[in-house]
Amino acid sequence: MKKLPIQGRTLALLAIIIPLLALFIYVGLRSGPLAPVAVTVASVESGSITPALFGIGTVESRYTYKIGPIFAGRVKSLDVHVGDQVKAGQVLGGMEPVDLDDRVRSQESVLKRAEAVLQESKARQVYAQTQAKRYEQLLSVQAVSGESVATKKQELQVANAELSVAQADLARAHSDREGFIAQRSNLRLIAPVDGVVAVRDADPGTTVVAGQAVVEVIDPKSLWINVRFDQINASGLAAGLPTRIILRSRSGQILKGSVLRVELKADAVTEEMLAKVTFDNQPDSLPSIGELAEVTVDLPALPTVPLISNAAVQREGDKVGVWQIVDGDLHFSPIKLGASDLNGYVQVLEGLNKGDQVVTYSEKALKVGSRIHIVDRISGVSP
Predict the structure, then answer these.
(1) Distance separating alpha carbons of residues 320 and 261, to the nearest angstrom
(2) Which of 107, 318, 347, 380 is 20 to 30 A from 239, comparing alpha carbons?
(3) How high is the pLDDT of residue 99?
(4) Which residues, in sequence order, are CB contacts of 249 under 8 Å at separation 6+?
(5) How do residues 36-66 score in pLDDT, each as one tens digit?
(6) How far apart are CA 213 and CA 209, in angstroms?
(7) 164 and 188 in contact (C-beta within 8 Å)?
């Protein structure tokens, strides 16, 4: 077989190597470390944003009425259940006194004894008064000594004091008896206002102490939401601002409300501001007390300025800015940001103008000199 000359072999080798090298360079520039980074871009818009605050709260009742006996006793009847509508003055149930009748009878005996003691004290006082006058008359004719007269006056003072004590004892016995009788006649549990039964803590036959709540009634018109807001973003929160409320059990329904008041005392542990939010119109069906609610407070609209997506904001060292495309080249432009809204837009106070092109998403981290390739969407990165 005839061998190729050296020059021919060299040309044949170059014919193979050059295409391979070109292919390698092409692949490197397209998909290797030197390949351009895929990015999505957006134009800076000019507009006005309406900042908003987002908070989580729980449904509470502003007015809760705990109804129970004013004395220890046993629940005789209870005619309402949780969720029942009640009217002011409606009888909810009754109490059966444990020993109230015995107390009334015992107090009547105490009253009779006090009356007897009073009569005896009056008789002693009249006798002591008569004796004191008689001894003063006898002293005037020198029939008795002055010491005897002083003794009788002292006995009169003692009788007067005993009479005062007996009168006070009788008054106290009357008062105690009337109190027991009033308790015996006040055995009914009555609703103080129109409302809904929220809690039923006892059943007939249960013994309860004085002041223990048997039934809790809430005023459905007084429902509000106790909301917590992050202190960092709570600037501008004030009474009267409109709100949007989404109850956890009704995720697809937006209810309108307003901020009733901002609490003066914040939570120092969680660093949150507290506010009370009310419904503009009560929901058709009452939410459960304690149910979670998402509350968005709409703050007043801000002046028109350049706006960008929050996704475009980057940090390079100690500077905050965006990757800006100028004449096809990539530059990092520091900017000064303003307020933001819940839709993902933020104000640009300095550094950009309307119409400037900025990078919103990139396939990987960018740096000065990076080659870029603009695409409509980056899978797994951009929305």
Answers:
(1) 36
(2) 347
(3) 65
(4) 287, 288, 291
(5) 888 888 899 888 888 888 999 999 998 999 9
(6) 9
(7) no
Both structure tokens of 296: 């968005």
Give the E-state strand segments of 23-125 in sequence order.
37-43, 45-47, 52-61, 64-67, 73-78, 85-86, 91-97
Domains of the chain, each with CATH number or no CATH: 35-49+304-383 (2.40.420.20), 52-61+220-298 (2.40.30.170), 100-185 (1.10.287.470)
Quick one: how far is CA 119 from the chain centroid?
63
Give me the residue label for tokens 């059966």.
Answer: 96
User: Two tokens at 104?
Assistant: 């009334």
Q: What is the pLDDT of residues 263-301, one digit of tens each?
A: 999 888 988 999 999 999 888 788 888 899 999 998 888
Closest CA to 187 of 92, 276, 251: 92
CB 325 within 8 A of CB 6: no
The C-alpha atoms of residue 243 and residue 27 are separated, in whole angstroms, by: 56
